[in-house]
Design brief:
There is one protein chain. By secondary structure, the chain is α/β, with parallel strands linked by helices. The chain has 3 domains: 16-263, 3-Layer(aba) Sandwich (Rossmann fold); 312-393; 403-461, no CATH class. The protein is 44% helix and 17% strand. It has helices at residues 37-55, 71-80, 84-101, 117-129, 201-213, 227-242, 274-278, 283-291, 303-327, 338-347, 353-369, 376-393, 403-421, 425-437; strands at residues 2-5, 10-13, 22-26, 60-66, 109-112, 133-135, 139-142, 177-182, 197-199, 217-223, 248-254, 257-259, 262-263, 299-301, 440-445, 448-455, 458-461. The strands form 5 sheets. It has a 5-stranded parallel sheet with strand order 5-4-3-10-11, sandwiched between helices. The protein has a 4-stranded antiparallel sheet with strand order 6-7-8-9. α1 packs across α12, α2 (71-80) packs across α3 and α13 runs antiparallel to α14. The chain is elongated and about 90 Å long. The protein starts with a strand and ends with a strand.
Length: 462
Amino acid sequence: MRIYDTMARAKVALDLPQDRVIRVFVCGPTVQDNFHIGHARTYIFFDAFVKYLRSSGHRVFYLQNITDIDDKIIDRANSEGVRFDVISRRFTNEFHDIMSLLRVDSVNFFAHATDHIAEILAQISILIRKGMAYETEDGVYFDVEKFPDYGKLWGQNPDTLLPSADTSGSKRNPRDFAVWKKLKPGEPYWDSPWGRGRPGWHIEDTAITDRYFGPVYDIHGGGMDLIFPHHDAEIAIERSISGKDRLADYWIHTGMINVNDEKMSKSLKNFVTIREVLKSYRAEDLRFALLNANFSSSLNYSESLLQEARRNVSQISILYNKALLKLGDRAEYRKDYDIIASLDSIIQDNMDFRGLFRDVIRLVNTWNASLDNLGADDLNQIYSLLKWVDSFAGILRRGSSDITVSGTVNLLLNIRKELRAIKQYQLADSIRSRLLEMGVYIEDNGSDTAWWINSPDGADIS
């Protein structure tokens, strides 16, 4: 498998051993506000990536952090007149709810920064002892001049880097960043050898990854906006502590999202939250839309992108369920079909979902044209292929989660079945016609009936 590596600035062979667990860390959210489609792109991609590795036989431990102490969290808490942890708990719960809706469920463990203060203090102590960090009147700072490779991941000369966001007149160098921030009035704090305070952002992640993975692990991921300063700072901290030549073997970053060809920004009023999208589209539609591109390139988000994704997801899902309905108890999931091997070679080249989806749609069109004439082996090939794609892409629509809708449709179908049994076909057909008018597609197969809500606002399958 080959994938674009940020440090190498090229596609490289992803050489992962089969004889041990693969360690993957992706930067999790700062829990201080609602989550937007940029978050969705990153977490959906890495969910699909990890699931694909697992489907290929790898054992993967997928770790994410939760940044639950941060300047933005404190600012929001102060504006609302509540404790910082009221904000962090609220948006941590919201994050987990959103990820569940998006079918992002591959993470093994979420590590909260505030649960790892001891590890953070230990790392700061080592940095000071090694002369890589120094104490001032308002905190402890990492000395970037002591680490010549600072900025290497981003590909910039350290001498040209902008000052860090940690403003302080006591820093030796404007580019130095805080690993410990001393207490200011009204802020939460923990005790430390350098006085009461709280951790800087970058060292929260290195303390967590060192705790669970050690100084060097397999894959580090996140959004492209985190490359500098965050990930370069992580490298500087961990390598200064460990003395190793790297923090991770591979660096994988998802590209930014533009909205209607403009950078997404609250100031431009084009900031799109995930919950806003899910009011009109299903999670499977959003997954298809965000995966259907080169993962490391910028993606232009628009209504037409989602509408096209919804059409494709509906077409794929209906064929899958038709095949499954026709197969009945003859359905057999197998991965040894040649067509799966062929499509697997596409995804092996830089997680090329765009190429994968293109060929899947082409096959779906071909199979739809001759579905009534296909035998059990062909139907099982359809079933197996689409189930395999869904195992990591997560694009097959599931049954309705609305109990009222499902119950009402099933009641009408039962009445229709009874009418057909007593040969009241005109009344039975009128129920079918009314359901179709409401966007409910039904298909009979002997005594069984499958139904889909295939309306302009989304689709359910039962």
